[in-house]
Each structure stands twice: as C-alpha cells, then as structure tokens.
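SAMPLE LOG
Freezer: B-3
Tube label: C17
Construct: single chain, 204 aa
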Amino acid sequence: MSKTILDSMTQANPDAHSEATNPANQRKALRSTLLRARKSVAAEQRRLWDAQIAEALLHWLQQRQPSSLAVYWPIQAEPDLRDWYPQITAMGIQLALPWVVEKNTPLKFLAWQQGDPMDLDEYGIPLPADKEKLIQPEMLLVPCVGFNQQAYRLGYGGGFYDRTLAGMPEAIAVGIAYDQALTAFEPGEYDLPMSVMLTETGLR
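STRUCTURE (predicted):
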C-alpha cells in the first residue's frame, strides 16, 4: 500500500495503524483505490485501450493456436473484449466462460460462443444456460484489478482464479489489465503468477 494511503488512515484514527499495516487490509484498500481509478477513466479512452489489447491478443493467439480459451464477461470497467470474441471463434478456438459453482471452490468452465442462450449467475454475470458442456481450457484470459512487476494478480478477493489455476498447472494464464493497474504489493501465500500480462501497450 502507498505511504499516502497509510498516512491518511492513521491520521483519521491513530489506533488504525496496525489495521492499516495488516496485509489483508492493505490489499483491500489497494483494491478499492485501483477500482476507483479504473472506473474514473472515460469510456472512450477505455474503448481505445480495449482495441489495443484485442489487437495484441489476436496476434498472439494466431501464433499460439490454443484449442480452447476461457474468456470473461466484463464487470466494473474491466477491459471489454467481447467485440473480438467472434474473431477468436473464427480461428477455430473453442471459447468458454467461467462458472462460479460455489464459494471457496475452483471455477468450472462452460463452452460458449456468441448467440448461445444465457442465464445470470448469483452475481448477475451472464453465463451459458447449458451447464452440461464443461471443458478445461488450454488458455485463460484472467481479468486483473491490479498486477505487479512479477505478474502476480490482485483480484476481487474471492480466490477463485488462484484455486482454479492451482489445479490446472499446464494452463496458460493471460492476465488482462490496463497499464494503470500496475502497482506494488506482496503476493499472498497461495497466489500464483500469471503466465503473461497483456495491457494496452502489449505483452509483459
């Protein structure tokens, strides 16, 4: 967490120093700061960044040619790549969307392409209505609230992707974020780094 955030918390409540320096509280405050910053970016600017991310992603996928790719439905001003999903499907790559079956468990992935019937999960996020077409994707696009120089990801705090990736050691995890999400933090005990990070300025 930055010194500015720590100072402001301590000044407001001198007894808050130990709480502010608690790693879990630091990550929570950092997550809130990063989300506010992302949501403050003008929609037009985000669309430009999205197109730059998508261009780099399509080029990389053409080189790698995975058989399947887990994508995501954007929330909270995440990079929105949905307009480019049909182009990925046209490459012969099977798309899948993540399914939160229950808390504290790995994600499952449902085969999907645009036009399929959809339901909403308990968080209000669309997912395929057909829950029988489960696949284990070769590659995953993983949206990040933040990331550090070592490609560790800061997510929303549920631990879903960490649990998932721990059970998929061969999978390639592509962290998706804007450059402004690059920050400094210590990864948690069970955190796993992304295989690669992709932002509007390219692969990291």
